[in-house]
Amino acid sequence: MNIRLTILLVIILALVGGSATYYWVNQPDDKEHVDRKWLYRVNDSDLIKIEVTHKTFDVIFSKAPGGNAWFIEGEPPAQVHGPKWSGTPFLLGGPAVERELPKAKEPLSSYGLDPPESVVRVTERGGYTFEFSMGTTTPDGTFQYIKLANEESIFTVAQEWAFVINKLAIEPPYPPTTP
Fold it and tell me: How much is the average pLDDT of 106-124?
């Protein structure tokens, strides 16, 4: 093998090894902060009940036992309208988190979380319930503050996602009435 090629390969190996070692040694020691991608995750087929309260509007959706049909609870229960409902269980399977505020300095009322604008409970087949509160939008209007009931951190999620969830309470997906 050519001596020049060998020296070049040794230099490249030393540069790569040195860079990797430098990076490894100088990593930030931030073990407390966990970078979350999702507020929570549930398979949409495992959801059995969804409760949405937005201001004065309140609605409960439940899945028929042993089936895939969803109903709006009431007297009488009404099956959800497919085109307005499609994708809703998937959306409620867990929102993507944009940002986490692990130790918010302001009171919860500054984020619209005391009292919250909306409270949502998502129950899965095993009986575990995820409960979260939604507050106001961020100052730029692109995200909304959200807080899981059993956590201290405040998160931001896409405002469009929160709008769709709030609309479930304001305009439930009842089937169209026929004249």
Answer: 92
Backbone angles phi, psi at 3, to 5 degrees: -65, -35
Burial track 115-126 (b if 16+ CB lie within 10 A, e otherwise): ebbbbbebbbee
Among 130, 153, 160, 155, residue whose Cα is nearest residue 145 = 155
Average pLDDT for 26-41: 67
Q: By residue range, what is the domain housing residue 84?
A: 44-170
| Residue 153 included in any domain | yes
pTM: 0.75
Q: Based on the structure, what is the number of domains in the chain? A: 1
Give a yes or no: residue 4 inside a domain: no
CATH code of residue 122 = 2.60.40
What is the Cα–Cα distance from 66 to 57, expressed in whole angstroms? 29
At 45-64, the pLDDT tens digits run 899 999 999 999 999 999 98
8 assigned to some structural domain: no
71 touches 79 (CB < 8 A): yes
In this predicted structure, the answer to whether residue 70 has a pLDDT above a threshold of 50 is yes
- What are 28's two structure tokens? 């930030």
